[in-house]
Fold:
Amino acid sequence: MSNLLYLIAVILVIAWAVGFVGYNVGGIIHILLVIAIIAVIFRVIQGRNIL
Structure:
């Protein structure tokens, strides 16, 4: 579960970066970034390593 959560966070950050640089989609990309950050914060709160 934790590896899946980290994988989703990484994918969302990459999707945000691509969208931010390449396209002007608007708020959807930033929502993806917020979800990725929340996933990483949950992982830190649970006491697991980020990497």
